[in-house]
């Protein structure tokens, strides 16, 4: 039996801060408040469905559990990564995620280190990355007094920027930004500040002040590092965006035909722009903007052709 790529259908998530930009990826939006598309996910809050081949119609979490041979025979309890596309029509809450130790102890799931590739950003768009408190006491004082202007560090962003956001980093995505996020498979978020917004029922959303103070890095004045490495081939620019403890993330700009060889047990692949083809063994698969798929263990070589912007990632074994 030949191993095929696993193409996925996934779940749209409505959010207070969402918009309608994700329709540009070919997704049918049920409202104009869609904040997230969980493009490659085995998390119980939004599981992807396999569209093709032997496993068509099956959920990714079940295939991961029952066919570990497709995933490097990993011993990980859960599928380790989650790929999302986010449409921030308004500011997301100022938030932080715990590390694995705190997450497992207090929430019963992994912590969350994540990273963002900025797909598009309106002029002047900003994110929050880090904070200015020098001690946990000062942090608590500034949060409790609402001294956000002095506490929060803002960074201007543009399309093509990339940010690695380790667990413990104060962060928020600003209005007018669409990103692809690669993260640990976790849905634990501690809100520090939510701009005093109310939901549809007129209620303020829950904050998690003590948990945030527990897990935020001190000091929090890290400058976002962008140490990307680019290899220019004749028909592709191959960029290593980050190699972290949890994932490696790459950007592939294809303008022609490019051969690839596997460097990890399996890879998660997202088409952000353009169209083209994927060739595996003697089979060809059409690709277009908004497609997401997994190249499982057993696919050692593949070829991409066309004009496409692609983000690919793989988990790092523990």
Report what the structure shows.
The chain has helices at 60-66, 100-107, 136-144, 148-151, 209-215; strands at residues 6-9, 11-19, 34-40, 49-50, 81-88, 94-96, 114-121, 126-131, 152-156, 162-165, 171-173, 177-184, 190-193, 229-232, 236-243, 247-261, 267-280, 283-288, 292-295, 301-315. By secondary structure, the protein is mainly beta. It folds into 2 domains: 6-215, Sandwich (Jelly Rolls); 229-315, Sandwich (Jelly Rolls). The strands form 4 sheets. Strands 1, 4, 14, 15, 16, 17, 18, 19 and 20 form a 9-stranded antiparallel sheet that branches.
Poorly predicted residue ranges: none
Q: Briefly note the CATH topology name of the largest domain.
A: Jelly Rolls
Query: Which structural category do the helix and sheet elements fall into?
Result: mainly beta
Q: What is the residue-averaged pLDDT?
A: 95
* Separation of the first and last Cα atoms: 29 Å
GO molecular function: mannose-6-phosphate isomerase activity; zinc ion binding
Cofactor: Zn(2+)
Binding site for Zn(2+): 97, 114, 171
Domain Phosphomannose isomerase type I catalytic: 7-104
Entry keywords:
318 residues; mainly beta; Jelly Rolls; nine-stranded antiparallel β-sheet; six-stranded antiparallel β-sheet; 11% helix
SSE diagram, text form:
Blueprint: E1 6-9, E2 11-19, E3 34-40, E4 49-50, H1 60-66, E5 81-88, E6 94-96, H2 100-107, E7 114-121, E8 126-131, H3 136-144, H4 148-151, E9 152-156, E10 162-165, E11 171-173, E12 177-184, E13 190-193, H5 209-215, E14 229-232, E15 236-243, E16 247-261, E17 267-280, E18 283-288, E19 292-295, E20 301-315
Antiparallel strand pairs: 1-4, 1-19, 2-3, 3-5, 5-12, 6-13, 7-10, 7-12, 8-9, 8-11, 14-15, 15-16, 16-20, 17-18, 17-19, 17-20
């Amino acid at each position: 039996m030949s191993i095929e790529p696993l193409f996925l259908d996934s779940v749209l998530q409505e959010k207070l801060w969402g918009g309608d930009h994700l329709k540009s990826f070919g997704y049918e939006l049920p409202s104009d408040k869609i904040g997230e598309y969980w493009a490659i996910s085995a998390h119980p809050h939004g599981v992807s469905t396999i569209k093709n081949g032997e496993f068509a119609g099956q959920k990714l979490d079940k295939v991961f559990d029952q066919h570990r041979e497709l995933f490097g025979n990993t011993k990980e309890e859960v599928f380790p990564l989650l790929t999302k596309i986010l449409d921030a029509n308004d500011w997301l809450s100022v938030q932080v995620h715990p590390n694995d130790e705190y997450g497992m102890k207090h929430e019963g799931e992994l912590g969350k280190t994540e990273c963002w590739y900025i797909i598009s950003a309106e002029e002047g768009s900003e994110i929050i990355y880090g904070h200015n408190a020098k001690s946990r006491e000062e942090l608590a004082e500034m949060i409790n007094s609402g001294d956000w202007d002095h506490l929060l560090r803002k960074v201007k962003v543009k399309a093509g920027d990339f940010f690695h956001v380790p667990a413990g980093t104060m962060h928020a995505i600003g209005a007018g930004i669409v990103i692809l996020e690669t993260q640990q498979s976790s849905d634990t978020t501690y809100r520090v500040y939510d701009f005093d917004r109310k939901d549809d029922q007129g209620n303020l959303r829950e904050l998690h002040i003590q948990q945030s103070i527990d897990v935020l890095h001190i000091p929090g004045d890290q400058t976002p590092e962008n140490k990307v490495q680019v290899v220019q081939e004749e028909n592709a620019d191959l960029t290593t965006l980050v190699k972290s403890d949890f994932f490696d993330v790459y950007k592939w700009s294809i303008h022609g035909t490019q051969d690839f060889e596997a460097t990890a047990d399996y890879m998660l692949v997202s088409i952000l722009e353009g169209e083209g083809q994927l060739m595996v063994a003697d089979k060809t698969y059409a690709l277009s903007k908004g497609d997401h798929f997994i190249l499982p263990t057993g696919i050692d070589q593949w070829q991409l052709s066309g004009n496409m912007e692609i983000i690919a990632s793989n988990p790092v074994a523990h």
